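ok, trying the design again with the full structure, not the truncated one.
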């Protein structure tokens, strides 16, 4: 009873006060990201078992992401009167159901349908969780809070995708999805216990600066879409790239685990710097991502060079979610939940578009051209950041 009273009367404080809630959100984010990206490491197995090409199997990521892009704003608006914690728990339950159906589905069509169901859940989950995390702490600590929550996303890369790849390689891709369903259910239970309830966020002030704030938000979400588009043009097919570079199938999971672990360096960098030097942090992050992907293209198909470049790329990408989420929240161009929906939607336009674009390049110009395409798009995101100084200020603007 006492614990329930504490959760219902939650007061915004510092990061330490919000530790339990931030951990719950990070854990839920981990299973959400793993659910979205688990096909990446299993594409060769899924395509072989369901008798479709790797490009078609890659559409499992595309369909999922496009569901998020299309539904983030309408579903967030439709659920705005519901308790935020209830919405998050419902999303985790749907993730669980989606993964169970995928594991049992006999056809590619049913697998794709179940993935679309997961995408609808994802549309709400990340839209709400971004605003939720920012409400657990005082405004000047939002960057650190969001960076800590996005450690769950980094863990999805570090542990979720590589471990599910290793498990799928060892005992079958369907078993990997069943294990993930169990992890989603466990995350739901822990979130119910640890995450405090918080009130919904209101609209930003209706003043003379409203137009400038909305323009800044548009700049942030545009750069966000471009960064994700470039990254996922390449990352969706990273297992194909690594195998073509000479990596043994049995080594694919461990390699993704090691490369993904380096993303925690980027996440740590974001947590340490976003509340101090937000613009510098964003520029450095995108420069490292673009440089790593370009280096991968130059090194391919050499095994060692390809792995080293992928490691650099992963370090940079570990900070991407936090820098754009924080920049978007701080524009105050909309309510926190609608900002979360816009960030979620544009990120998934990039994810789905990247998977589709990568498939086109793969089937057209060939595998070697995929990294160059991705690098060019991340550079375009960097250009937006450099031009839009108001959207990406050198220091915090909390007024």
């Amino acid at each position: 009873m006492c614990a329930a009273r504490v959760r219902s009367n939650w007061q915004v404080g510092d990061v330490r006060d919000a530790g339990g809630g931030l951990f719950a959100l990070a854990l839920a984010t981990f299973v959400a990201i793993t659910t979205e990206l688990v096909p990446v490491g299993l594409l060769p197995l899924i395509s072989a078992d369901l008798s479709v090409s790797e490009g078609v199997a890659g559409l499992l990521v595309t369909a999922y992401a496009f569901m998020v892009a299309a539904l983030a704003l309408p579903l967030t608006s439709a659920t705005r009167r519901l308790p935020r914690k209830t919405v998050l728990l419902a999303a985790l339950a749907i993730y669980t159901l989606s993964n169970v159906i995928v594991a049992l589905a006999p056809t590619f069509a049913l697998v794709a349908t179940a993935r679309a169901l997961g995408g609808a859940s994802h549309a709400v989950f990340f839209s709400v969780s971004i605003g939720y995390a920012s409400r657990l702490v005082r405004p000047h600590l939002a960057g650190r809070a969001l960076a800590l929550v996005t450690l769950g996303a980094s863990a999805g890369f570090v542990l979720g995708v590589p471990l599910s790849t290793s498990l799928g390689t060892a005992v079958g891709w369907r078993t990997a999805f069943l294990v993930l369903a169990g992890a989603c259910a466990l995350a739901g239970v822990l979130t119910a216990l640890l995450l405090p309830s918080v009130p919904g966020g209101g609209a930003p002030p209706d003043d003379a600066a409203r137009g400038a704030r909305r323009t800044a938000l548009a700049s942030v979400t545009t750069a966000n879409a471009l960064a994700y588009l470039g990254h996922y043009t390449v990352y969706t097919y990273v297992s194909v790239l690594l195998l073509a570079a000479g990596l043994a199938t049995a080594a694919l999971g461990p390699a993704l685990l090691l490369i993904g672990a380096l993303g925690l360096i980027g996440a740590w960098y974001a947590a340490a710097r976003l509340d101090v030097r937000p613009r510098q942090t964003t520029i450095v992050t995108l420069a490292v991502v673009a440089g790593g992907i370009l280096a991968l293209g130059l090194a391919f198909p050499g095994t060692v060079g390809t792995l080293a470049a992928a490691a650099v790329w992963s370090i940079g990408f570990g900070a991407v979610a936090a820098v754009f989420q924080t920049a978007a929240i701080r524009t105050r161009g909309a309510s926190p939940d609608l900002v979360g929906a816009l960030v979620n939607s544009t990120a998934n336009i990039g994810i789905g578009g990247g998977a589709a674009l990568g498939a086109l390049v793969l089937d057209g110009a060939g595998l070697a051209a995929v990294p160059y395409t991705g690098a060019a798009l991340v550079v375009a995101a960097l250009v937006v950041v450099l031009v839009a100084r108001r959207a990406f200020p050198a220091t915090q603007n909390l007024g």
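Keeping the full-length input from now on. The first helix runs from residue 2 to 8.
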